[in-house]
Automatic annotation (TrEMBL):
Residues 259-286 are annotated as: Disordered. Residues 259-271 have a biased composition (Basic and acidic residues). InterPro entries: AAA+_ATPase, ABC_AA/LPS_Transport, ABC_transporter-like_ATP-bd, ABC_transporter-like_CS, BCA_ABC_TP_C, P-loop_NTPase. This is ABC transporter ATP-binding protein.
Amino acid sequence: MIRVENLVKSFGGFRAVDGASLTIETGSITGLIGPNGAGKSTLFNVIAGVHEPTEGRVTMDGEDITGLKPHELFHKGLLRTFQIAHEFPSLTVRENLMMVPADQPGETLWNTWFGRKTIRKNEAELLKKADEVLEFLTISHLRDEKAGNLSGGQKKLLELGRTMMVEAKIVFLDEVGAGVNRTLLNTIGDAIVRLNKERGYTFCVIEHDMDFIGRLCDPVIVMAEGHVLAQGSADHIMENEAVIEAYLGTGLKNKVKAEETKEKNLHEDHGAQPGLGDEAGKGGEA
Ligand SMILES: Nc1ncnc2c1ncn2[C@@H]1O[C@H](COP(=O)(O)OP(=O)(O)O)[C@@H](O)[C@H]1O
Ligand SMILES: [Mg+2]
């Protein structure tokens, strides 16, 4: 279990994360949603050791992990992927998977995790593992493709694949669905569910696609303006007034309300009552 207590991250005077408290239960696929600028990626960066927190505490199974470096967290099985996929474009998909930790404390996660120093003696083992991962993700046919030629969604799958090359316990996925087509998003979703069920991975997933969140995540945590606004099941969250307001803004919400009232008046005899939830749903698909 990851517990985040009163976390603050300031950039200059600006509090990007402003007193966020939340828990991620072991074995869950926890969703993290919220409008752009809510502080979701910054929260991930603090948990994953990219940024030092200004205030607050992070624990993993009771152990204080606040301020640990990415490579230290990596060795505890805590990994993150990036909002924008990072791959070695000139290496093949399989070679990308075979980049393994060089285990040199002090290096950045990037160098440590994906350093170009492959460990020769393990090469056969790595090759086998990489092929298993490719099969699990149903992208064996892309094995020898240069990673730079992959679509955005395929790159996201490759990132997920990298977490499978090591003993990950908890994986933080930042906007897995951004720029990914529906079919591939389903493939990514299926892989996440299978990793969770079959391999015991815990996930925390930032995503804007509410269908995806609703299908995969329980619970869902909503952030706005640097703190946690609400937490609950996806259904519960989507009915939450404060959440709708955070997404649509008060002005828009009032406009929706005004139009509802207008509609209601127009159709009073027919009993038509379009709900705010419907409007929010339509907005989400745009
Ligand atoms: N390194 C940084 N320096 C200054 N401001 C930042 C930095 N990273 C993020 N911010 C600001 O913090 C706020 C939250 O950003 P972010 O965590 O990326 O939000 P989200 O991922 O929810 O869209 C934004 O206003 C953003 O501009
Ligand atoms: Mg972000």
